[in-house]
Specification:
CATH topology of one domain: Gamma-B Crystallin, domain 1
Order of helices and strands: HEEEEEEE
Radius of gyration: 23 Å
Oligomer: single chain
Helix content: 10-25%
Number of strands: 7
Number of helices: 1
Largest sheet: 4 strands, antiparallel
Strand content: 15-25%
Strand order of the largest sheet: 2-1-3-6
Distance between the termini: 82 Å
Shape: globular
Structural class: alpha+beta
CATH architecture of one domain: Sandwich
CATH class of one domain: Mainly Beta
C-alpha cells in the first residue's frame, strides 16, 4: 500500500512543481494598454488613469464612466474618430486621426470635454482649434 501511495504522489509532486512558471513579463502601462483595433480614451495624460476601449460608436460616455473625463487617447482603428462635446452625437466635434498621429494628449480646452464618440462620421460643427494652440 505504501508503494502504491508513493507511486501516485510522485507524479502529482512533479506536476505541481512544473505548473509554477516564473514570468518576467510586466503588465502594459500608459498607451500600451490600448489593444490593436480599438479606440482608447484615458482619464489621465499620456495614456494614464482609467481607460475605456471602444470598437464602435458610443452615444453616451457616462455609461462607461468617461463622460467629461478624457485627457488623452489613441486611435488604433482604421476609422476616423469624431469626438462630440455632448451626448448622443450633439454639440461640436474634434477629430482623432488613425495611426501614429492618432495618439496623444488632448488640447487643454478639450480635456474633460468629450461626451460621445462616433466612428467614421458624420461629424458635426467643428469645435475648432483652441486660441493659442494652433501650432
Amino acid at each position: 500500500m505504501k508503494n502504491t501511495l508513493r507511486a501516485l504522489l510522485v507524479p502529482v509532486a512533479v506536476a505541481a512543481a512544473t505548473a509554477l512558471p516564473v514570468s518576467t513579463a510586466h503588465a502594459a502601462e500608459g498607451y500600451d494598454r490600448c489593444p490593436d483595433g480599438y479606440y482608447c480614451m484615458f482619464s489621465g495624460l499620456d495614456g494614464t488613469g482609467d481607460m475605456i476601449k471602444l470598437k464602435g460608436s458610443t452615444p453616451d460616455l457616462a455609461a462607461l464612466g468617461m463622460d467629461d473625463r478624457a485627457k488623452s487617447d489613441w486611435n488604433r482603428t482604421p476609422s476616423t474618430i469624431y469626438l462630440w462635446s455632448d451626448a448622443n452625437y450633439t454639440g461640436c466635434t474634434v477629430v482623432t486621426s488613425t495611426g501614429p498621429t492618432g495618439k496623444g494628449n488632448f488640447y487643454p480646452a478639450y480635456r474633460d470635454f468629450i461626451s460621445s464618440v462616433g466612428f467614421d462620421g458624420p461629424g458635426g460643427t467643428s469645435c475648432g482649434t483652441p486660441p493659442g494652440e494652433d501650432g
